[in-house]
Amino acid sequence: MKNYFILKNLCRKIYLAGAGDFWFEEGEISQGKSLRYRLLCFIVFSTYISMTLLEIIGVFFGAMPNDERSDCTSFAVSHTIVLCKMFSVIVNRKRVKELNRKLVEICKDHEDEHRVAENYRIMKINVVAYAVSVYGSFVFFLFDGVRKMMTGSHFITIVTYWPFYDDNSAIAVTFRLFTTGVLGVMLATMICIDSFAIITLIMYKYKFITLRYYLQGLREQFDKNNHAGNEEYATDQLHSGFIEGIVMHSHLISLSKDIDRSVGAVLALQVCLSSGSAVSLVLQLALSKDMTVAAQLKIILFVVALYFLLALFLCNAGEITYQASLLSDSIFYCGWHASSMRRDLRQLVLFSCAAAQRPIVMKAFNMLELTYGTFIQVVRGTYSVVALISAQNESTPE
């Protein structure tokens, strides 16, 4: 039941972050449909949307220096995609609840305590590392804002259309501090949503590992029971266990569709965010000749956070494909050929092996394959675009 508590604890954090109740057991996390909580969620997301709209307006109509315009553009694009990611999960709340139920129930009777503990350790490392990378970038944005204030400018992290660049009134300063706080809270909500997608992928991967060890255990148990006078019992145990394994396999295959419907948009939008925003940020870093060390560090850490999350998504999705591909051998060598019912099981084994030899490939929007190769392609594509534009800029006479 470790997976039950992992998912429930995560859903509780998502609830506290203001994204709603995603747990499949009614009343376990939220005590009914609270009007006060709904009002709080409305205020929180209205603030997120308002801040993002001010950033978008600032990109087109704001009068500001080039460095602040670059920050405004980066934040406008990033926050728009982040909001789309959040709403894609919130809109599919019922599907997410059903996904949580299936993640808890499938294979739960055959999960090994040590493997579940290892699963939890990997989840924790992934989520903590991602949170550290995000807030590490946020700290350097704060540091750069303080540096600007110390050099005679004004403190700023989020660049919006208003306050205007030369407005240093008390109201303007207060609003800049307010948007900084809003950014900190928004990052917490974003991390919770992204962490749900990460944990879903890791947990799904370990479901295939659990099934593989279960099928291998059938052969070991059959060899142990298959002795003179006990052949019928050993065969019956193998037959019933194999049927149960095939049912679990079919449930796992269908679960990929539930994951795509629930968090597929989050994975696809992250590919767009990491590739698009990273290009603009790296170009800003490469083409600017008078950028301070603090400004360079905030951009570098921002890019690291974008690519780190993309790597977590795509590499864990790629690992699902790999683990699913290993099931074919486990099915074939489960011991069916040594049983007295081998003729009855042969057809079922052949169909099961054929199904396992078409390994699951996680996709976003049923188009973009989420694999190790996709991550490499995104990184290479970003590098190629940045290298091309940088070369053109260097060859253009001033």
Would you summarize the structure shown here?
With 398 residues, the protein is mostly helical. It has helices at 2-16, 35-61, 66-91, 93-105, 113-150, 170-225, 231-287, 293-325, 327-332, 342-356, 372-395; strands at 363-364, 368-369. α5 runs antiparallel to α8 and α7 runs antiparallel to α8 (293-325).
Commentary on this structure:
The mean pLDDT is 90. The chain has a two-stranded antiparallel ribbon. The protein contains eleven helices and two strands, in the order ααααααααααββα. 78% of the residues lie in helices and 1% in strands. It has one domain. By secondary structure, the protein is mainly α. The longest helix has 57 residues.
The helix-strand sequence is HHHHHHHHHHEEH
Radius of gyration: 26 Å
- Please tally the helical runs, counting DSSP H or I stretches of 4 or more residues: 11
Number of domains: 1
The strands making up the biggest β-sheet line up spatially as 1-2
**Oligomeric state of the chains?**
single chain
What's the total number of strands?
A: 2
In whole angstroms, how far apart are the ends?
66 Å
Percentage of helical residues?
Answer: over 70%
Q: Kindly state the mean pLDDT as a whole number?
A: 90
Which runs of at least 5 residues are low in confidence (pLDDT < 50)? none
Task: Outline the fold blueprint.
Layout: H1 2-16, H2 35-61, H3 66-91, H4 93-105, H5 113-150, H6 170-225, H7 231-287, H8 293-325, H9 327-332, H10 342-356, E1 363-364, E2 368-369, H11 372-395
Helix pairs in contact: 1-6, 2-3, 3-7, 4-7, 5-6, 5-8, 6-7, 6-8, 7-8, 7-11, 8-11
